Every structure is written in C-alpha cells, then in structure tokens.
Amino acid sequence: MQNPRETTLAIASQTPRRVAESLPPMNKRRKGISPGWWFISPWLFGFVFLTALPFLASLYLSFCQYDVISPPRWIGLSNYENLFLHDPLFWKSIWNTFVYAVFALPLGTVAGITLALLLSLDLRGMSVYRTIFFLPSIVPLVATSLLWVWILNPQIGLINNLLEMVGISGPPWLVSPVWSKPALILMSIWGVGGSMIIYLAGIKDIPTFLHEAALVDGANTWQRTWHITLPMLTPVIFFNLVMGMIGAFQYFTQAFIMTAGGPQESTNFYCLYLFQRAFLYLNVGYSSAMAWILFVIVLVVTTALMKTHTKWVHYEGN
Amino acid sequence: MSTVLKQSKSVRFVAHLTLIILSIPCLLPLLWMISTSLKSDAQIFPSVGEIGGFRLSDFIPNPILWSNYPEAMRSVPFGTYLQNTLFLCISTTIGAVLSSALVAYGFARTKFRGQKILFILVLSTLMLPPQVTMIPTFLLYKGIGWYGTWLPLVVPSFFGSAFYIFLMCQFFRTIPNELSEAARIDGCGELRIFFQIMLPLSIPVMATCALFQFIGAWNDFLGPLIYLNSPSQYTIAYGLQQFMGTMVSQWSYLMAATTVFTIPIIILFFLAQKTFIQGIATTGGK
Prior knowledge:
heterodimer, A: mainly alpha, MetI-like fold, 2 strands, B: mainly alpha, 2 domains, 70% helix
C-alpha cells in the first residue's frame, strides 16, 4: 500500500523547501468543501437556527396576534399601533429605561475612569486595592440583587441604619416610586469594578514615552492626565459606552428579582415589560413587536454613537 | 510605569487616603451580607422602640450563629441545586470552549470564500439584544419538546459563542504560521493541526473562555427562568430567587444562602485572578 502521507513525508524530509513551493496554495489543494467550512459548521448551524431564523420569525410574529394556543393571525401593524398609541405602560417602560441609562451610564463612566486613574498610580499595595474594587462586580447578579434588597430595607437595612447614625432619616428606597430608580442606580455604581478593569488595562497600554516627553516639558500629574491619559483612553471609553448602553436597554434581572417592576411600575424597565408580555400574558406577537422596537432603538443609538466617534475618539497614528 | 513617573509624596498620601475611603462602601455590603448571615433574629430585628438604635458594634454578630448555615441549606434543597448548577457549568463549559475553538480555528487559520462576511456576522451577533431572538427560540424548543429539560440550556453552547470565537481568533492569529505550515507539509490534516498544535498552544485563551463560561452558567438566571419548570431542576441562582418569597424576613438564612452561592465564585476569582483580569482587559482592548 502506497501511503500518500508517507511519500510526502519522505520527499519533504529531503527537500522541504522545493516541496513547499510545488504544493498548490492551501485553499485550492482540495476539491469540494474547504476544511474551513467544516470548522465553522457548528457556529453556522447555531447561527441559522438559533439566530437568523428566530430573528426573522420574531419580525413576522410582530405583525401577528399569537397567544401560543391558536395559530398566529396576521394583523398588520396593529401591535405597533397599540404600543405607540394605546399602551401607557410601554412608554413608561421606555421612560424608566431612559432615566436609568441617563444616570447610571455617565455616573458609572466617571466613577470607573476615576477609580482606574487612581489605581494606575505607582503605589504600594495597589493589587489589594484593585481586588477590593473589582470584588463587587464578580458577585453573581442574583446574589447582588438579593443582598441589595436587604441593604436597601427602609427600616433595618444597612444604608438607612448608617444614615440614622448621623441623624438622617433615610428614604424608603425600593418601596417608593420616587426612590426606586435612584436605588437601582446606586446599586449599579457598586458594580463599577467591571468597567474599571477595562479602563485600567487601557491606561496601562498607553506608551510611557508620551508621559516621559510631557514630563520633560514640565507637565504635572494633572496636566498629563488631562492631555495624555484621557485622550488616549477615548477608544476604551467609547467601547464601554456602547456596551453599557446596550446593557442598560437589557436591564432585567435586578428589576425582576428586587421589585418585579413596582412600586407603581416605577421600575418596570423595557425588557421586564417585554418579558411580562411574552411569558405572563402570552402576548407573543405584541412582545415580538417590542423586541423589534428594541432592536431598532439599539441599532439607531449605536449608529448615532458611531457617528460622534470621529469627533472625540482619538486613535493612535491618525 | 517607569520610575521617572513616581508620584510625589503628597500625591501618594492623598491617593492612599482616597483609595482607603472609597474601599469602605465597596466592602461594606459584602461584610454586611456575612455579618447578617451569622446573626440571630433578635439582633437583626430591634425590639419596638429601639429602631434607630443601630451602633457600629451591631456589625459583629452577637452571638455568632454558625448554625444559620446548615439550617439555611436545609430549608431549600440546596444539594440538588448545587448538583444541577455544577452539571450546567461543566457541560456548557466543555461545549462552548471546544466548539468556539473549532470555529475560531476555521476563521483564523483556514481560508474559504465568504470568510470575511461570515466573521462580520459573528461579531454583529454580539450586538444583537438576545430579547430579539428569545421568543421564537423559546417556541422552537417548546415545539421540539425540549421545554422543561436541560437541553435548551446545554445544547446551544455546543454551537460556539460569538464572544469566545472572537477572543480565540485574536489569539490564534498570534501563533506563527510556520508551525502549521510545517505540519501541513508533513501531511498533517487540518483537524490534527488543530488538536495537536493549536490547542496545546492556546491553553491561556481557552482557560479565559472556560472561566467566563463557568461563571456565566453559575450566574445565569434568565435561562433557567424560561426553560425549567420543576424544582428538582432548579439551579442555585434560580432556586434562591424562588425561595426569596418563602424566606422573606428570614434575612439571616437568605444571606447565608447568598453567601454560599457567592463564595465559590470569589474563590475561583482568587485562584484565577490573572487569567480573569487579562480576559476582561482584552475584551475592551480593541
């Protein structure tokens, strides 16, 4: 039996270079399907059946009335019409999500960058500080939610206990429609360590020679932070903003566990309402329409952010 | 940073002070969780007329009730939850890492038509809110009879995850082409190059992805919420939420259970701190 592999091996060991040259290029060597397709086939299968088809199916369902029991019935734009014109809770959920994003995102960004700047200093014991600030962000979301229900307890929770000690009567937090969103925003700041680590890595990537050059020119720490570190950090800030924005629109678990949307729907966020419509009321068509509106919002806001991109994001080398 | 950039003494002092002050609100909630988990109800609930009498000494449980832990574990079928959670963590980790590595190899180290467009598709799925595909996917699984089983939570992980594919691609591209070319000349098939050359060289990135997947499965709430319907299948994350209702006002038990749920993740973080932080850092890098 002539084993082609052994033959190649034999030739290869004699004149490796010439054989390599005489071989046809990789992608034309084999007829039929390129091996690359076999490698990506698991993803391709998942993409077609678990992403692409469901994506289109939800678009179709968004034009239907469907309650899972009887077959979907085409109703045109009625779902969208009802959402936009006759569903105050839909607008309320958008408002809630908007308020959360508008406060939690900038606050988280500023806190994350400030912490990262502090943690990038050359101090003793820095790894301990880093661990401390990172710790809250690795606590599982469900655990964080349960813990904060207890921390925010109006009578005997941690925060109001501490406020009491300095003579302040704390707010009712999650029990009050006014304080429920601030409570959740406060909780999100506690988990800022995740983005802090990304900023920190970004700061560490900034070439030292830039700082050294500025130092020679007599720039102090503050000036170097403002004119070198922050501009060089803008790509990371941009990345975190986009991801944070997408994350804010998907805010769900905390609200589901801690408040179930209450009090007075003040924490009924977009994805929570979508979930309720889909899985509690079985308004499959209606919630599919909500899902597509979410998709369009995310697409529009991301594109808008991308448009501002060239104005303030600084890339090395241009 | 080089020594040229050493901060002055006063800057260092202020920085230390700020960091110490900021550490307090970071750690207090966790300390509060552990402290509550060891307290007696009498200490948690002040008697009438005593509200507002909170002192710093109340942070320390008195008496320390270690028995809260076994009692909390008995008030919910914790062993079952733990088994289920570990099963999900391990099976999806194997699935996601293996399949994502295969797919990443296909994208990074082979050539075929349409490769670029497909890779852009992989990346764009990262931006797609899962809610958009959630409902039809649910109907699909229900249609093929998978509702109420593990399958919707485990099987998709074997189709690769866009995020891990991306991370691994980045890594595979840094491995010199000469290695696989040499193997190819020796007649090595692509699959063998993948298993015998790429995988052994890619342990760091695989560890990062495995870690992320393990923690992700440990924490997952929405998956079990949608697909599981019998308490014997619940994971810790889902079971804890379910029993919050029944354990309400039993804060010591709830916090004991929450602590037990959190500690493994924190231990895992300390064991794999470097892998973990590097993984997160590369995420935001480019």
